[in-house]
């Protein structure tokens, strides 16, 4: 320990020729250059904050926040706050009174839809219940419990009361429960039935399809990248143009050309029929399903695998392979033991890039995915189009979390510093 | 030249030609025999075909025509991994993802050798280059010289009969290079292996080799021992490529056996040994090594011609003094003098006479 501290005390004592501490002098000498460097990156930092950090922060906030019920039902909010431990199977008369007064108020302020939608997240089928209740509310007389149950017996459901209690708070983790296929039953939160488990299944399917696409990309990109790295300059530049050509073409055009190729009356099927490999009736369904999504996305994402692989392969000198061969290794052993291990940073970078892009891909599956080729991002988009912002945000946040988890795993296993993107 | 027809050659190139593009020949009609245990250097400027020859021997390039034999067997069709030739590369080519020990074990592993035998051999090979303590390091943690030793040990660990070295010392600094030259030379002597060494550094070629093949323009210009190569170059390319050299153009005035009298373009007569000039009146280029030029008449053999010279510049180089002279109209004539205690001091502008022993001046092709 003494050895380790000694140099520190020594440096602390060091001074410049005119007696100033060395550290201060060094900091002053570099301060100007550092300030100037900082000014250069300020626009970028602002841009990233404005267009990236703030929207993501907002999205994360939205995934926990919904005031559709809390803002339109003040009496209920007050009552739930005063009676946090009430019995949802048999709420008292005051609770019903508060509910009826809020329903009447919603009818006047036209906020029934908002409140109903909020409850509908956790207890499906409640929008129409709220609309019916609100219409009837101003004509109801005490005792309100019997009166409201007479309008619709559903008002007595414990699940509904649990839902309203939860919705009386602006901030809630409920959307994450919903996005994990949970729903509010009369006995509290529970997993939905087999047919209702769409979110986790879609998460699983998204990861599976992304994995398949990543693997296919790797399989296709490896030889191409190797060729790019070893061909003479003139030929490799030409090949590189072919690799980059898709980048210069609209994504929409590329995807629709796959439709033209792979649809049932498309080029590929026509060719197979003409060759007699399949019959006219047996035309393959390669479009508007999972196959279509996989084929089109593999094509779209291929350059993202080729480029990192290429950048790594380019700097592997051919003498390694020659050395291995001269030492007695067959070409297969040379590839497996010498070449492949050295391309690992490229494989890892390309795979990570393609996988992350694939997991969040939206437009291609939306165009060619049909019913079973949809990914989780299509569901996010669906909920956004239905103004279910909080649920969409919760799913997106889960997607973000899983990608960060993947990144963390990658760092633990391979090391981020070994990543090479080109 | 007798070695070329030797039948017991360990490595033989016979009428080997190589073309990459089908238009030009990079190697033109190569005939070369290398004896067992010989240290042969292929020396030449870049693009002279020397590396191509080495690559054909290693199996990374195929000969367009001709036959290459190793230990009597034609190897044109044998893939590189079955040739059993050790090779040291210019950039060492140590596998960066393996430790030193793993690098050395690699050739033994692919030969299916058991773990304990492997460890023994690796240890012995590392001891041979005094690098055993580095067995668990990665190549990136070693200096250039250390990497070079490991590369050497790896090329030798599987006991190859033939080791090829492709400018192995090119990336090292001068002092280390000279040290490694001796080390490689000693290893060669101790192990009795055959070495084919490629370099463009003539000093390296002269110090290390039993014989040197000077390549230029796809042909072997001269194949000789280092001393023959330096003292008795057979053509003007070799004379100019190996060591420093003064060139005096002229025509043959008299030719008798091993003596020639050459009239320089400025009219002076000088003595020379005819090498590849055939007849009187032929144009020639006389080559004289700077250290063989004399300016003291008492050092000259009787009857030898001396010609006028003017000292232009004296360069002090420590062990020697280098005088740039104007001789026969050329301002680039160089004379080297040993920096001894009693050495005559020349000054610029001084008029002197220079001469040489006839066998030191070689009348070559122009």
Summarize the model shown.
The complex is a heterodimer of chains A (422) and B (366). With 422 residues, chain A is mostly helical. Chain A has helices spanning 2-13, 22-62, 74-82, 93-109, 112-122, 127-137, 144-151, 158-167, 174-179, 199-230, 233-248, 251-262, 267-274, 290-314, 318-326, 331-359, 363-368, 376-385, 389-413, and strands at residues 182-185, 188-191.
Fold and architecture overview:
The complex is a heterodimer of chains A (422) and B (366). Chain A is mostly helical and 422 residues long. Chain A has 3 domains: 2-62, no CATH class; 74-194, no CATH class; 199-418, Orthogonal Bundle (MetI-like fold). Chain A is 70% helix and 2% strand. Chain A contains 19 helices and 2 strands. Chain A has helices spanning 2-13, 22-62, 74-82, 93-109, 112-122, 127-137, 144-151, 158-167, 174-179, 199-230, 233-248, 251-262, 267-274, 290-314, 318-326, 331-359, 363-368, 376-385, 389-413; strands at residues 182-185, 188-191. In chain A, a hairpin with a 2-residue loop joins strand 1 (182-185) and strand 2 (188-191). Chain A starts with a helix and ends in a 9-residue tail after the last helix. The model of chain A is unreliable at 1-8 (pLDDT under 50). Chain B has 366 residues and is an alpha+beta fold. Chain B has 2 domains: 2-236, Rossmann fold; 244-364, OB fold (Dihydrolipoamide Acetyltransferase, E2P), CATH 2.40.50. In chain B, 23% of the residues lie in helices and 33% in strands. Chain B contains 8 helices and 19 strands. In chain B, strands 6-7-8-3-9-10 form a 6-stranded mixed β-sheet, sandwiched between helices. Chain B has a 5-stranded mixed beta barrel with strand order 11-12-13-19-14. In chain B, helix 2 (100-109) packs across helix 3 (115-128) and helix 3 (115-128) packs across helix 4 (144-156). Chain B is elongated, with a radius of gyration of 24 Å. The A-B interface holds A 317, 319-320, 322-331, 333, 337-338, 341-342 and B 58-60, 79-87, 89-91, 93-97, 106-107, 110-111, 154-155, 158, 164.
């Amino acid at each position: 320990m003494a050895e380790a501290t000694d140099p520190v005390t020594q440096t602390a004592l060091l001074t410049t020729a005119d007696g100033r501490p060395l550290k201060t002098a060094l900091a002053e000498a570099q301060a100007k250059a550092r300030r100037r460097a900082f000014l250069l990156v300020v626009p970028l930092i602002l841009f990233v904050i404005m267009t990236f950090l703030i929207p993501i922060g907002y999205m994360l906030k939205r995934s926990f926040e919904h005031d559709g019920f809390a803002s339109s039902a003040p009496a209920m909010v007050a009552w739930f706050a005063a009676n946090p431990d009430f019995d949802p199977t048999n709420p008292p008369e005051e609770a019903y009174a508060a509910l009826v007064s809020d329903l009447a108020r919603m009818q006047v302020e036209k906020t029934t839809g908002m409140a109903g939608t909020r409850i509908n997240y956790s207890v499906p089928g409640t929008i129409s219940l709220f609309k019916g209740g609100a219409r009837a509310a101003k004509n109801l007389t005490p005792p309100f419990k019997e009166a409201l149950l007479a309008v619709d017996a559903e008002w007595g459901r414990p699940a509904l009361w649990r839902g309203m209690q939860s919705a009386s708070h602006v901030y809630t983790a409920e959307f994450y429960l919903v996005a994990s296929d949970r729903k509010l039953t009369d006995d509290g939160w529970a997993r939905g039935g087999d047919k209702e488990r769409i979110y986790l299944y879609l998460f699983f399917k998204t990861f599976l399809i992304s994995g398949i696409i990543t693997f296919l990309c790797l399989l296709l990109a490896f030889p191409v990248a190797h060729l790019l790295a070893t061909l003479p300059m003139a030929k490799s530049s030409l090949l590189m143009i072919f690799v980059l050509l898709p980048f210069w073409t609209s994504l929409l055009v590329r995807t629709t050309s796959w439709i033209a190729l792979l649809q049932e009356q498309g080029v590929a099927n026509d060719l197979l029929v003409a060759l007699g490999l399949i019959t006219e009736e047996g035309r393959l369904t390669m479009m508007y399903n999972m196959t279509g999504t996989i084929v089109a996305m593999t094509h779209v994402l291929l350059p993202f695998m080729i480029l990192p692989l290429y950048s790594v392969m380019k700097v592997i000198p051919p003498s390694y392979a020659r050395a291995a061969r001269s030492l007695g290794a067959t070409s297969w052993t040379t590839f497996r033991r010498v070449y492949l291990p050295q391309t690992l940073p490229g494989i890892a970078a390309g795979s990570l890039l393609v996988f992350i892009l694939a997991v969040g891909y939206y437009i291609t599956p939306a165009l060619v995915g049909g019913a079973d080729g949809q990914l989780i991002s299509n569901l996010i988009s669906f909920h956004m189009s239905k103004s279910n912002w909080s649920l969409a945000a919760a799913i997106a946040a889960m997607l973000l979390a899983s990608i960060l988890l993947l990144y963390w795993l990658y760092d633990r296993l391979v090391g981020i510093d070994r990543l090479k993107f080109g | 030249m007798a070695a070329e027809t030797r039948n017991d050659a360990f490595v033989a190139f016979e009428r080997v030609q190589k073309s990459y593009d089908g238009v030009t020949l990079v190697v033109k009609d190569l005939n070369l025999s290398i004896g067992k245990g010989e240290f042969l250097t292929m020396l030449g400027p870049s693009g002279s075909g020397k590396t191509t020859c080495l690559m054909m021997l290693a199996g990374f390039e195929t000969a367009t025509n001709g036959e290459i034999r190793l230990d009597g067997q034609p190897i044109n069709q044998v893939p590189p991994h079955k040739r059993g030739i050790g090779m040291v590369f210019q950039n060492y080519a140590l596998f960066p993802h393996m430790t030193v020990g793993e690098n050395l074990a690699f050739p033994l592993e692919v030969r299916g050798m058991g773990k304990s035998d492997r460890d023994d051999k690796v240890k012995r090979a590392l001891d041979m280059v005094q690098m055993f303590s580095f067995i668990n390091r990665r190549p990136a943690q070693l200096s250039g010289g250390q990497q070079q030793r490991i590369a050497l040990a790896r090329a030798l660990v599987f006991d190859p009969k033939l080791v090829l070295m492709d400018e192995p010392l090119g990336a090292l600094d001068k002092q280390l290079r000279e040290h490694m030259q001796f080390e490689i030379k000693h290893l060669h002597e101790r192990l009795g292996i055959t070495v084919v060494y490629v370099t463009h550094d003539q000093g390296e070629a002269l110090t290390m080799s039993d014989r040197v093949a000077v390549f230029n323009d796809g042909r072997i210009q001269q194949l000789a021992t280092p001393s023959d190569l330096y003292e008795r170059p057979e053509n003007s390319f070799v004379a100019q490529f190996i060591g420093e050299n003064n060139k005096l153009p002229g025509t043959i005035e008299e030719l008798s056996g091993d003596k020639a009298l050459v009239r320089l373009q400025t009219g002076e007569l000088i003595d020379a040994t005819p090498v590849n000039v055939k007849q009187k009146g032929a144009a020639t280029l006389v080559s004289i090594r700077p250290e063989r030029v004399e300016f003291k008449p008492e050092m000259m053999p009787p009857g030898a011609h001396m010609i006028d010279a003017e000292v232009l510049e004296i360069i002090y180089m420590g062990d020697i003094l280098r005088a740039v002279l104007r001789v026969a109209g050329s301002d680039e004539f160089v004379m080297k003098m040993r920096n001894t205690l009693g050495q005559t001091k020349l000054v610029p502008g001084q008029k002197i006479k220079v001469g040489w022993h006839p066998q030191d001046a070689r009348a070559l092709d122009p």
